[in-house]
Write a structure and sequence with these properties.
It is a single chain. The protein is α+β, with helices and mostly antiparallel strands and 315 residues long. It is 25% helix and 21% strand. A hairpin with a 2-residue loop joins strand 12 and strand 13. It is globular and about 50 Å long. The chain starts with a helix and ends in a 16-residue tail after the last strand.
Length: 315
């Protein structure tokens, strides 16, 4: 049978539509899987501080390099103007190549390397609670543990309204958290070089989150941050989970000001890149000034005189 040009176009177009339909259905049915970078044991060094051991958990995910224990100046304290703020912005400073007050030894030559890794969280989840053989199920199990800890953290923060955890349209292994309130306003403008303030105006998250209610979708005063959970190893009967934080300013703010109920370790470098408010495709440096390791409202110091045991931090 001889086909004319119109028939060929119709057949070609129909084929494309069929292929497109299959692709769409495939993407819709795709489920995110837990990222497992390594399952080999990670050694806890009892001769090093808790803070340094926690930072080293990020090594297998390319984070945490360039910091070591050092002398701690116990007379240095950090003042807070905001009673809800765990640490004040620009609270740290460099002097003679040392970061005082934390004991973290950051030589000037290492500062550039330090700023090449992003803030992250560290968690320890029982191996019995994660079916690592089923990566889709494992992702749901780890995400559930993460959500419960983020929810608990927000419950202890004044001025924060938590709206839940949501997945991505791309089915990527990323979870997104939404919140609003005065805490959101502070988080959204955190580190802004133009020193702007006021009510949050944020539409970016609407492009790629799924399952969000119409009520939330109609609002622009909502903050978000993203987290990618990854298993990087194991210690005793626990998987070591690293939470790679997104580059939103609210992610950095949450780690610094996560309240007394934050149930995983937050690790913040001396400087971090955050998305630009004016153009989310661009980023800006935010200077923290010190390396922080925090959990549940407690700051862990890089004390060279400290000894530690893994069992002491598991609760």
């Amino acid at each position: 049978m001889k086909l004319n040009n119109k028939t060929l176009v119709a057949v070609f177009t129909t084929s494309l539509l069929a292929l497109g339909g299959c692709s769409s259905t495939s993407n819709a049915n795709k489920q995110p899987e837990l990222i497992v970078k390594d399952t080999a044991p990670i050694e806890w060094n009892n001769d090093e501080s808790v803070a340094l051991n926690i930072v080293k958990m990020g090594y297998r995910d390319g984070k945490g390099k360039g910091v070591s224990d050092g002398p701690v100046d116990t007379d240095m304290t950090v003042e807070h103007d905001d009673p809800n703020a765990l640490f004040s912005f620009y609270s740290g400073f460099y002097q003679g190549g040392l970061v005082l007050g934390l004991g973290a030894l950051l030589m000037d030559s290492e500062i550039e390397n330090m700023t090449k890794w992003y803030p992250f969280g560290v968690d320890f989840i029982s191996k019995d609670a994660v079916n690592i053989e089923n990566r889709q199920l494992a992702y749901k199990q780890v995400s559930s543990a993460l959500e419960s800890k983020v929810r608990a953290a927000f419950s202890s923060i004044d001025g924060a309204d938590y709206h839940g955890m949501y997945g991505n349209t791309s089915a990527a292994s990323v979870q997104n958290f939404l919140f609003s309130g005065e805490y959101c306003n502070n988080a959204f403008y955190f580190g802004d070089k133009k020193e702007r303030e006021g009510v949050t105006s944020n539409e970016v998250w609407k492009r790629y989150l799924v399952g969000v209610t119409n009520d939330l979708m109609s609002r622009s005063d909502v903050c978000h941050f993203s987290v990618t959970p990854k298993i990087v190893g194991q210690i005793n009967d626990n998987y070591v989970v690293v939470y790679s934080m997104g580059t939103q300013s609210s992610a950095l703010y949450f780690l610094l000001n996560g309240g007394e109920e934050l149930g995983f370790f937050a690790v913040i470098p001396d400087a971090a890149r955050v998305q630009s408010i004016d153009n989310p495709k661009d980023s800006e440096w935010v200077t923290i000034g010190q390396v922080y390791v925090v959990k549940g409202g407690k700051q862990y110091l890089f004390d060279e005189d400290e000894t530690s045991a893994f069992e002491s931090i598991i609760n």
